Amino acid sequence: MAGFLSLSLLCLASLTSAAGPAPVNLGTAGNYVIIANSGISTVPQSAITGDLGASPVAKTYFTGFSQTRSTDGTYQTSDQVTGRMYSASDASPTPSTLTTAVNDMLTAYTDAMGRSNPDGLNLGGGTISGLSFAPGLYKWGTSLNVEGDIYLNGTSADTWIFQIAGDMNVASSVKLNLGGTALASNIVWTVAKAVTIGSTGKWNGVFLGGTALHMNTGSSLNGRLLAQAAVTLQSSTVKQPTTAGAGLPSLPCVGSLCLSTLL
User: Which of 206, 209, 136, 216 minimizes the C-alpha distance to 170?
Assistant: First the structure.
């Protein structure tokens, strides 16, 4: 009994202990892998896992996709998307659902961009390569150029927020590497201007873009693209991230005492 209790308390501590800023609440925007206010385009063949939302624009602003409309008219599907494609021109309740998601995206952007007291300010003068980032808040008052691989190491409870006042440009073939059990869903890139992930680059995290988000040929993202303008893909891979708690092992119970009773 004491052994099981100790195990449960140890696991509980590992689940509740976290380093970094308070998480950014995406609200219903977190139901989508891509949201764009002015359209989503692809140069085939891209591979997207998760739902797409385009609002306040019509489904014609999904370009480069072959689309099949659902029987009830509330969404589209495509051979490039493992999920559904929603637009403001779809049948009810899709337009109002998307309006809520876009508003939640804007709230999340304002929250993330407004966080204060960064752990790092203007690192590398706006040009970085080879850096390792502990959980925390990092801010650049300029554009950010990532010219070489960077590293984030932490647990599945740790969080990172990166604030960029200008553009963000990731050079071709550059990677963001995760160490430990760090999760892409706990990494937020909030960028006031345009974002470009270079060709064959591999990235992680949730982008909250003040304007457009671009993924160049062969690039990939484990995360979300939530843009206040357009999202453009060029034979890119975008996969919605695993969230904290997914796939956790079950713990033994003795009588009525389980980890769930301690939460």
Answer: 216
